[in-house]
Amino acid sequence: MELFGYVCSPLCKQKAGFSGLELPEFAGQRDVVQRRFWRKINLVSGAVGSAVVALLGVWIWWVWFGSTPKPVFSVRFAEPSYSGQSVFCGTDQIVFLHGGTLARHDMKAKKEIWSHSLIDPAKIERQVAETIESLRKAQQRLDSDFPDADPIKIPSPEKLTKSLTRAAAEELELYVRGQNVWLSTYEKVVRYDWETGKPVQELALRGGLGGALARGDEMWLLRETESGQDIVTRLNLATGQMQTEGIGVEIPQNANLAVGPTPSAAGAASPVVTKAPDPDKLAAQAQRLPLPGRIALPATLSSGVNQQRLLNELNGPTPAPPQSVPDYTEQFELMPTRDGFVQFSVRLIERKMIERSAMKVTPGKSALDGPVSVTATAEIANEILNEMRREGGGGNVMEDHSRYQITVRISGARDVPDWKGEVIGLPGLYPLRTVNVIAAGKSLTVLDKANKKKWEASLSYGVSGGAGSMDEADAPFGLGPVVERDGSLYVIDEGVLTAFDLATGNARWRLPSVGIAGLFFDEEGKIYINSTTAGPDRIKFSRQIDISERVNAVVLKIDPKNGKILWTAEPGGQISHVSGRFIFAINWYQPEDNEEENLYMPDTGFETPPYLRIKRINPRNGRVMWEHFQQRAPLDVQFEGNTIRLVFKKEVQVLRFLSL
Description:
Elements (H helix, E strand, L loop, with lengths): L9 H10 L10 H37 L3 E7 L7 E5 L4 E6 L2 E6 L4 E7 L3 H25 L11 H14 L2 E5 L2 E5 L3 E5 L6 E6 L7 E4 L2 E7 L5 E7 L5 E5 L8 E3 L15 E2 L4 H9 L3 H25 L15 E7 L2 E11 L2 E5 L19 H15 L4 E5 L2 E8 L8 E6 L2 E5 L3 E6 L2 E6 L4 E6 L23 E4 L2 E5 L3 E6 L5 E6 L5 E4 L5 E6 L4 H4 L12 E6 L6 E5 L4 E6 L2 E8 L4 H4 L1 E2 L10 E7 L6 E7 L5 E5 L2 E5 L3 E6 L4
Parallel strand pairs: 14-16, 15-36
Antiparallel strand pairs: 1-41, 2-3, 3-4, 4-5, 6-7, 7-8, 8-9, 10-11, 11-12, 12-13, 16-17, 17-20, 18-19, 20-21, 22-23, 23-24, 24-25, 26-27, 27-28, 28-29, 30-31, 31-32, 32-33, 34-35, 35-37, 37-38, 39-40, 40-41
Helix pairs in contact: 3-4, 5-7, 6-7
């Protein structure tokens, strides 16, 4: 039966078929079993194949579409702006500042709720007229006193209007908490109504020296009463409530109140100047050139150098810069802390400036004396660029070894004595959560909040003046150069990151790295460092140019306990956001607007177009998860979870991606 089923042989089965008999099928027959087995195999294989195809399709969709950012909101403008910000508020609501335009939009409905222009054309027109009139009077005085002097070039009203309008827009700062929309300038802080966008509350700031400083949901406003008393108003941005109190220290007339940005001279008219080609800019452009451009580089640079030398001959010898007179008066700085204000004063005791060469010795044999080939173009270009630097007087650096007396005074703390001391090198004060840190030259002094010295330490180099920020809410490239975290004090100097024990001052570990911009901390306390691939020679020979040396941005993840490097990556930009599993590196390039600067700059032909590149980094291994690229540079970039807000010259854009 296993072989033939219910018949005794194939002959019987054939006779039954000829007779029209239907034989039942024996389930245990070998052919039936094998047929059933292969039917199951085919069904399983088909199911597995379908699942694989489906998973492959899902993976392709996820990698190329689902997990990569896509625009979900966009507003375009006819005219370009050169400053802007954007903030999410409420459900699908966005408030943005684009140049001098403040607007609120519903992103889901893609509808404008309100929009207002903040720049007063009549005020700009008055400023233009006053500026032109002052320049004309200055020209008249110049003609009277120095008839042979070069004339002052007075800009056209159109160009001056554009410059002053741009400066007025760049002065605006946007803050949104809940449904409270605030804008600050150098002169005032204004709240705008959520429903209509009209101004409903205004606070004037201390004229000339005051400013506004946002700390979380609070903004500190330095103001002056009618009686001349200096006060600070703590404004709650979320509720609009205010609390006013005295500063607690007497502000000298020459004090620098470090509570807000210092007004710049943007928009002020100035005579046309002739500027030599910047070797640093040319070197940066040369490093981005394709091979044909690098081959032609020496000839192009030589042409630019000869052109500049001709201009120098026509203009005559450049007068030597006047010697600066040492200022021995005491300089004051008022700095906000979590507990109030700290007055930091510095007085020069003995001036000692040491000039040293920051370039390598010129080689005895010129690269032009040898055979000129494709492989020698970089060496020839380096020689030309370094010669341009030496001729421009930019090959030396000045190091400050002067003696300074410093005083630290705690505002409102009558029982806390002032701390005074002497340091070598220009000092700086860094108020932190539990300590105040004084850095001067290669020395470090740590004071507690009672103004008592805890400990001193020495550094390998001077404290870095990189892109780090002391405020965690406003640190686009990380905290620094002095950071307090979990019982440690992290200090970034020019070539080393040092972790000190906050209580004792003992160095727990040191990590050599040149060009650290800032530090980020994740939820587990791990540290992400924005640094570069540069070596120590970059510090010693900081003015030397070598276009063949590629200095790239590098990100290091380290263990704060021992300084051990967990991984190193070169994502092509610096980390700008760390929050949970969302880590983003960003890199962009915006060519300088020479027309706005009104400077002479020879056209090298190597200009790089603007671009924006954003990469999401895997926090486990530093690998790039996806990359977003646009052929334009942003004015502002903000990250929030799986959403990216971008402000461009002619567009406000929101990107979003799926995340597991």
